[in-house]
Design brief:
Distance between the termini: 49 Å
Largest sheet: 6 strands, antiparallel
Number of helices: 4
């Protein structure tokens, strides 16, 4: 993880942005980044707010899933049915490449995900993990921008009673 930005003000709110780098092997390669997202939240010191994860580029996406081989396989099979890799795409004619299905798949799923956090923990379900999915037909180096906006932990200071 690369720490990029910390922006604070006096009312207890803070914005923290980090970037996660990962390498993929091509279409269908899925990565569970839940642990990295949770670590970024812990490092931020924020207690309540929202985390947005955004994968840069037009041929990858972010979602949640029960990250296990069967569910990931089912997920990839669905996208092969929706936007077949060997299908005919006008994108191929324009650019002379082979990743028209990649752009369609990524556009269907989307590049970002927002997760609330409470008491310093992501509000994910027991079997819910954060997944980055590569849709491009070639290996890629991906950057996921993680931005957290929330309330910092407040110190409990006893107040004097007159």
């Amino acid at each position: 993880m690369i720490d990029v930005d910390v922006d604070t003000n006096d009312d207890g709110w803070m914005i923290r942005t980090i970037r996660i780098q990962l390498s993929t092997s091509g279409q269908g390669d899925a990565h569970d980044i839940t642990t990295k997202a949770a670590a970024a939240l812990k490092e931020s010191g924020l207690k309540s707010g929202v985390m947005t994860l955004f994968v840069t580029g037009s041929t990858a996406a972010v979602t949640t899933i029960e990250f296990e081989p069967g569910a990931v396989s089912d997920f990839n099979r669905l996208f092969e049915e929706l936007a077949p890799r060997r299908g005919e795409y006008r994108h191929h004619l324009r650019w002379g490449d082979d990743n028209g299905s990649s752009h369609v798949r990524a556009a269907l799923l989307g590049p970002s995900l927002t997760i609330p956090f409470i008491d310093g923990a992501l509000t994910l379900g027991t079997w819910q993990q954060v997944m980055v999915i590569e849709f491009d037909t070639s290996a890629r180096r991906r950057e996921i921008v993680v931005q957290m906006i929330g309330e910092r932990a407040r110190l409990s200071v006893p107040c004097c009673v007159a």
